[in-house]
Amino acid sequence: MPFGMLPAVIASLAEAGVGIERIKSFLICDEISKRGITRLEYSRNKHGDTKTKLVETDNVDVFWDKDGVQPTLSQITLAVENDELLAVVGQVASGKSSLISAILGEMYVKTGSITTRGSMAYAAQQPWIMNATIRENILFGYKYDKQFYERTIRACALEVDLKMMPSGDLTEIGERGINLSGGQKARVSLARAVYSRADIYMFDDPLAAVDAHVGEHIFEHVIGPNGMLNTRCRILVTNAIPYLSQCDSVALLKGGKLVEIGKFEELNSRKDGQMNALV
């Protein structure tokens, strides 16, 4: 082996060591029990425009720790239909992100039940980016559909960013490529979710990572009533008050409990309601 290759070999071995430790940590994790969680099939072709509850939680208590005593979320009952946009709001540490994690099956259900119908897509609050091209990050293994892909790029406000990159959407990102800003990572993660053509979409505060006009663009063209996903089931964690009136319903969490749910106008008009304190 040429001596000049030694630094590259050492770097590769170091990366392999990190990868092995990550795999080891994953493999020794406790498996999360699927008790109380039901996954059912759903076909848009079969059901058509018929109203169908794609997400249902019935008086559910969930824990992060399987031996936990105090539930992270308690007595949560809600339902989201196939074309509904539900906004989940509340103060910091009220349980908003935990609700999405529970629906995804990442928490322990002690009482009650969680039922979902169809495929799910999730855009996390902390986006995960692969060491690959932007296109590969968005496609995430799905077949390249040029028309739908370009529509997704425009809707997620990535068009201008890609034009500024050296190789457009074929630009490498991650550890071996260019660094993206927090807002760019959030939009790539959002585009990945949109491109998956799922039945259920869960967005954990995607508007917080972008500036106001980009947030308006994303809500209008992706999440909102006139967006690409307006016929899909959407759960949006946000505290962006201006968008709540455009949501079909709003769920207000406080201390791990669902204290109010309904139309924003109705909740906001209650003089003794909890929504007034948030607004």
Notes on the structure:
With 279 residues, the protein is an alpha/beta fold. It has 2 domains: 1-30; 34-279, P-loop containing nucleotide triphosphate hydrolases (Rossmann fold), CATH 3.40.50.300. It has 10 helices and 12 strands. The strands form 3 sheets. A 6-stranded mixed sheet has the order 6-9-10-4-11-12, with helices on both faces. A 4-stranded mixed sheet has the order 1-5-2-3, with helices on one face. Strands 7-8 form a two-stranded antiparallel sheet. InterPro entries: ABC_transporter-like_ATP-bd (IPR003439), ABC_transporter-like_CS (IPR017871), ABC_transporter_C-like (IPR050173), P-loop_NTPase (IPR027417).
SSE order:
HEHEEEHEEEHHHEHEHEEEHH
- Measured on Cα atoms, how large is the radius of gyration? 21 Å
Assigned CATH class of the largest domain? Alpha Beta
Shape category: globular
**The named CATH superfamily of the largest domain:** P-loop containing nucleotide triphosphate hydrolases
Q: How much helix is in the residues?
A: 25-40%
Give the beta-strand count.
Answer: 12
Strand content: 25-35%
Low-confidence stretches: none
Cross-sheet strand order for the largest sheet: 6-9-10-4-11-12
SS-based class: alpha/beta
Specify the number of helices: 10
Question: How is this structure best summarized?
Answer:
Residues 55-278 form the ABC transporter domain. The chain has 279 residues and is of the alpha/beta class. The chain has helices at residues 6-27, 44-47, 96-104, 134-139, 146-155, 159-163, 182-195, 212-223, 264-269, 275-278, and strands at 37-40, 53-63, 73-81, 85-90, 108-117, 120-123, 132-133, 172-173, 200-204, 233-237, 249-254, 257-262.
